[in-house]
Protein 1
Amino acid sequence: MRGILLSDDDLPGPAPGILIAPAYAGTGPVEEERAEVLARAGYVVLLGDYYGEGKRAADAEEATALMFGVEAQRPVLARRMAAALAALAAQESVDATRLGAMGYCYGGKAVLDLARSGADLAVAGSLHGVLDRPPQPTQAIKASVLVMHGWDDPLAKPEAVVALAQELTAAGAEWQLMGFGQTGHSFTNPRANSPENGMAYSAAATQRAYAALDRLFAEKLGR
Amino acid sequence: MRGILLSDDDLPGPAPGILIAPAYAGTGPVEEERAEVLARAGYVVLLGDYYGEGKRAADAEEATALMFGVEAQRPVLARRMAAALAALAAQESVDATRLGAMGYCYGGKAVLDLARSGADLAVAGSLHGVLDRPPQPTQAIKASVLVMHGWDDPLAKPEAVVALAQELTAAGAEWQLMGFGQTGHSFTNPRANSPENGMAYSAAATQRAYAALDRLFAEKLGR
């Protein structure tokens, strides 16, 4: 696995760490911009890699193939995320008692799977994540989970939202759902422009989601 | 109908107006405190009355009887709310082009019914509202709707949330749902203390709900 670590040069001491799980195409402009914003805010940020070798897909076809490669061995996703979190926690610049994670699309699923594994995580944020449960059992969830979801997302229907809510409740998680009406998948991606397929950018949903997630990071990670 | 109007003495000119629909017991400390906060923030606030004569129930039994009296003639609820909104809009201190509404419990239903009627409303906020649809057809919804919901609310199950989402989407509304895990009905009420019946105060949910609603009022009513 090959991630990218960002932090401010002038950190006064060990800082909270945030792991970002990219969308299914691998790290791109959306994840990079977000990482910069969080690093400037004083977090140490790891842009994670759940494919290996820091792969970035050239197009949707390649991204889909990479994603199905991991999906076919689903428990691997949580293990790779756990390895990334451990690498982040091991940084000298990081206060390992204050860790959060966020992810987009398939990376949202990756973050949920990490939280489901009982990882030592204060915050788990999923942005238009895919919500279906992995085969391995859900552990007691330590993270405060924030699910940011476009209600018209074709990859996560209302039934999947309701099932996730039930799962998180049963796992004892503190959790919140933000559902955005008239909004589909990929709402954080300014290049998403396929409303007929339920995938389109929404500036309003993006702004509301990031604002809520930033507040939760600040609340739980003590910044 | 007999409401209570609150506003700051030093308003520089016509201000946006907010109608508050109380919980089923009629206006009490929760609604009054909220009205004061909003008035201090520069809104003209009307504590509405959907029972008549400004009735406040002495206990849960009386509140239930009052509520069923209105519920038995459900279309009346939206009409009484419309009359309250018109009274608010007619105040000299109010800019009638900038109106919002919020409500608790049965008052959440009242605000939703007002929005469903196509009222000229920029914001409609429901706090642990009851979500079922009235018999009259839903009109094109002008309000930006924010549904703040405890996921374990016994008065509004996940199926009702999903049905409301579908209704709001079909009505063309801009809408958002905040779902709070491990949270039931009455979460804004510090005196609610019946978790075994799914009704209990949650300081965290209250704070998150009010913060989101305040931001939406500020965004849509231009304060």
Protein 2
Amino acid sequence: MTRFSFSISATDGVARTGAITMRRGDIRTPAFMPVGTAATVKAMRPEEVRAAGADIILGNTYHLMLRPGAERVARLGGLHQFMGWERPILTDSGGYQVMSLSELTKVTEEGVSFASHLDGTRHMLSPERSIEVQRLLGSDIIMQFDQLVPTTSMREAQREAMERSIRWARRSREEFDRGGEHAERAAIFGIQQGALDREMRQASAEGLIDVGFDGYAVGGLAVGEGQEAMLGCLDFAIDMLPGDKPRYLMGVGKPDDIVEAVVRGIDMFDCVLPTRSGRTGQAFTADGPINMRNARFAEDQEPIEPGCPCPACVTFSRAYVHHLVRSGEILGAMLMTQHNLCFYQRLMKALREAIGVGQLGSFAASFLERYRSRARTIAEPVSG
Amino acid sequence: MTRFSFSISATDGVARTGAITMRRGDIRTPAFMPVGTAATVKAMRPEEVRAAGADIILGNTYHLMLRPGAERVARLGGLHQFMGWERPILTDSGGYQVMSLSELTKVTEEGVSFASHLDGTRHMLSPERSIEVQRLLGSDIIMQFDQLVPTTSMREAQREAMERSIRWARRSREEFDRGGEHAERAAIFGIQQGALDREMRQASAEGLIDVGFDGYAVGGLAVGEGQEAMLGCLDFAIDMLPGDKPRYLMGVGKPDDIVEAVVRGIDMFDCVLPTRSGRTGQAFTADGPINMRNARFAEDQEPIEPGCPCPACVTFSRAYVHHLVRSGEILGAMLMTQHNLCFYQRLMKALREAIGVGQLGSFAASFLERYRSRARTIAEPVSG
């Protein structure tokens, strides 16, 4: 049986569509991975995540190692069995969360020592421990452990972190290869760093390619630099990564970010936006995001997004969802999250189809024009 | 088409099983009505409430008149369409919540003036307004507006409230009968008051019967008097109500309360316990309630209740639900609520079947022995 293969069925410019084949199932690309931080895509049942169109979800190493604990998940049969999701799972390495969430963090060549944000207990994440945790979880796509520094860091600090990340990439790869049965069915991705700097991005890519990975992520973006800067970086960074391997843009993003990145050759995405927005009252539509708390929806009999085939839109009105969201009802979060995940997956499907028929340029232009026009004409408060 | 009929298919002692037939569907009795306070059975989709076995749900007049507002619900097509529940809905009269939740309450013969607990705006509930609100919601079973006083009130205050409730029962009935098309498809129940006093319960029942209702509720119980006192009151109060009409014990209760009340001739129940407990980590099982937050479940691979056919038990382990509840995840509330509602509905089905075959006594004894034995032997903290 195939461990990991990536086949491209059609290209359009530098964009491509195809599928990653793994033992737990195929991942159609370009793919959006809903985030299941704590072994649950928040407010969704696994079958609803699948019905929305997801082929793969993302789990967070940092959160899961702290609660319920990687060894515990392993004793319970692995993350898939634990949370009732049979298809592929990608786990991040914990490198991002350990810098953004934990406290009293100390970085050495060995790894990162930190205090849990939950209870202050001290833990260590190294390339070896990160891969071990991901293996204990039973992850299908493992991410290398990397070092992140704030985008405001001096160039020298950026360079040191990028170079250390290459050394950690090699240690991650070596630990992955010691995984025995797990290594025979899972895959491992490297993560390109280098902030917005072309020369550092090139050095990072060359270092990772020298190690050799099943796929390559573009890391260190979508951390506050703005869409224009991010796309400008993608314009040169993507081409540095092997064209025959999946390219994954971590932590992205808004629907228009995704369209722009697919046009530039990205194959995989993850982001908390559709789920988090679902809990704060923001719904995504082809005409841009809308805030369901807005009083103008109080007696609106239309669904969240007219024409959307998702169960939330088929059954319920904006008036009802508005009432639920305003009242802080759990069902409001359930319905909004369901719609948002369906919106994202419908967008990915439309992108795949547009590439398949060689119409990505016109699809993207049309989508972006409509999506952004509302944002330009209506100054509506939205929460991120 | 039948507006409202109650047919008894079997009796066992004073207990009975049968069905209420209404235009929106049959209600198998004894029936448990999940509470949908704010136009949602919290954390559940309507189809999940139905799949759990519910024939009817309860809506709260007080909450709905304040948010989203009865006139607004009417403009949106009524409560059934608003919340996506096509089967019967019973609405309470607001009499209980207006005394327990609102502020600056002033009671006169006309009705109750109060300030909303949401925003302090002043509102009035009278028999006429309560029935009007319930009609605007499109309720199938309307409850009369009654006056509640604390159980610690002096006997004279209890008597005055009981007697006023009879006068309000007549005004409620008259307003209901002025309802035109609504009165042709809906039903109205009276509410017996009189605290724990036999003579007052008798006077209340006689007053209500003189007005004439489709069904009769036992009110003013399950308000802190304890199970023994409640059952002692039921022992004489139920027989005062017409045997050919449904008898509804409002706000009850724990599974063992329900079994004891069915044995005494009650046909209908409502209670927030299965839903509220589902959000606080308490699961109901045939062996008594368990607190899923308890550390002993952290690696327990059994379902919440072994043998339970509900989707939560079929798919997920106690270990997973424990993790979700401890992590404050919405999915934890969803799964726990689903199990609890399924448990309650399975209990009602078992009670109906036991009455049908004349085995209620042995079923009840067996259920209560098993349900209570665990509570006796394990001092487990449960939240109510």
